Amino acid sequence: MNVLKKIIFFILFLAGGYICSAQEISIRGGFNLSQMPTKWEGKVTNKNSELKLGYHFGPVFDLKMNKLFSLETGLLYSTKGLRETNKETNGTKSLSKINIAYIDLPITLKTSFTFHNITISGDVGGYIAHGLFARYFSSENTDGTNNSWQKIAWGNTGEAIKRLDYGIILGIGVKIKALQLGICLENGVADLVTGDPSSNRTFNKTYDIYIAYDIWSRIKKNHH
What we know:
Elements: H1 2-20, E1 24-35, E2 38-40, E3 43-44, E4 49-50, E5 52-64, E6 69-74, E7 76-87, E8 93-115, E9 118-139, E10 147-151, E11 164-176, E12 179-188, E13 200-202, E14 205-214, H2 215-222
């Protein structure tokens, strides 16, 4: 845990200097559609997994490198996890969910092209995330009866979930004036479940759909 805190502090320290030089500061918010696929020898075993609805929000900072490229980072509160519906032998359906809240720090290389006041952008990079809390929900019936909530422990042993997550990001966006719409894929590289055998891997996979408002450009415009 101490090593993890040092890593996150170092990244935030670097990001702090970057933020001071940012030429765009936006507030971003949107929805997450997430899964936690488990792969056994390269094949997905939990195919009943559905897309779980979550959300994210926070500030995003953009530093221009030249006319085409910029570096983008942010600090986002994000909820991820999984949702599964299973048919029991008696014909009823049961529901299970894992809810995990993270602080995400994305860092991407962004390329942008502007046509008639419309800017189209693409992003590629990675993210590191620190888990805040995790809970497991189960219901014997999908109508919401016989519910139970259970806290999931963080750690590197037993059935705990690892607090640190990291992975790759691919995204596209469209910006008109100060408003941006976008979608991105976050594909986890970290193996989250500590009790898995070495040939088994469970990871986060999240589709983010968001809207962002460039407040810094508006502030500068109002002061001119």
